[in-house]
Design goal:
This protein has 264 residues and is of the alpha/beta class. The protein contains eight helices and ten strands. Helix 2 runs antiparallel to helix 4.
Length: 264
């Protein structure tokens, strides 16, 4: 790097670096993890994992503005943030740590889930009332094989689904770390434990929500049937059902978090 470029780089970065030194620790952490300050994140948050879900959610938000790695917009007159977790519990836990420091009160995961029960179809909506901790992250936070979602927020999602005349399935999901290491034995174990679906983020979201007294829930759309011919690789075959289910799940989630009114 030549002297001119070094000077340019230093001039651009130095003022920001000096300013960051005087921020409170929580603000520093939020800036480091999400690229924005705590005040740029609403107290109500939707948590997609994959870009498809993020972009679909943003189409329902009024005037979403980019805030670092997050988006801030409105539903009615209330602020709502969309904060992608990335895929997997390590990434989701990092995002939840940042949201705790931004004093977020309500966080709803809206994304995809693999359907483990024969009766589930692509595009069906699953509301997870709990998650089995088949991942390696949550054990660093809390003991036990299972963690519950916030019951009040979960029941609100169930109630709101009726307003949209949408059939939903409620039950536990199995959260795993390794997408390409899901085996028939794992599916059998998850079903035997009582799981109706399998995902990669819910246990971390529920665990950190419980620790930090943040209301958390998950409403997800069946994107595939692991271990069957209806695999994720052929999801395009079911695109219309999948997107309709996702849109309905987003509407239900937004209606639920908005109905909390001023209690946040």
């Amino acid at each position: 790097m030549d002297l001119k470029r070094k000077l340019k780089y230093g001039i651009e970065v130095l003022p920001k670096s000096i300013g960051m030194r005087f921020l409170p620790e929580d603000s520093l952490i939020v800036n480091m993890l999400l690229g924005c300050g705590p005040n740029a994140i609403a107290k109500r948050v939707l948590l997609p994992a994959v870009p498809t879900c993020t972009s679909r959610i943003l189409s329902f938000i009024k005037k979403p503005e980019v805030k670092g790695q997050t988006h801030l917009g409105k539903i009615d007159s209330l602020d709502v943030s969309v904060v992608p977790t990335g895929i997997g519990c390590p990434s989701a836990a990092i995002v939840m740590e940042a949201l705790h420091r931004a004093k977020v009160k309500i966080a709803v995961r809206v994304d995809f889930v693999g359907g483990l029960m024969e009766y589930l179809r692509i595009g069906d909506i699953v509301i997870a009332n709990s998650a089995f901790k088949g991942d390696g992250t949550t054990r660093h936070y809390m003991e036990g094989e299972k963690v519950e979602a916030d019951s009040h927020l979960t029941n609100l999602l169930i109630q709101k689904s009726k307003d949209f005349d949408r059939k939903i399935y409620v039950g536990s999901v199995w959260t795993t770390d390794a997408l390409f290491r899901e085996t028939p034995e794992l599916y059998k174990k998850a079903v035997k434990k009582g799981s109706i679906g399998i995902d990669m983020e819910s246990s971390a979201i529920f665990t950190l929500g419980k620790i930090y007294k943040m209301r958390t829930a998950a409403i997800m759309v069946v994107s595939d049937k692991p271990g069957t011919e209806e695999s994720l690789l052929y999801a395009v075959k079911y695109a219309s059902e999948l997107l309709q289910g996702l849109d309905d799940a987003i509407k239900i989630a937004l209606s639920a978090i908005v109905s909390f009114g001023d209690i946040v």
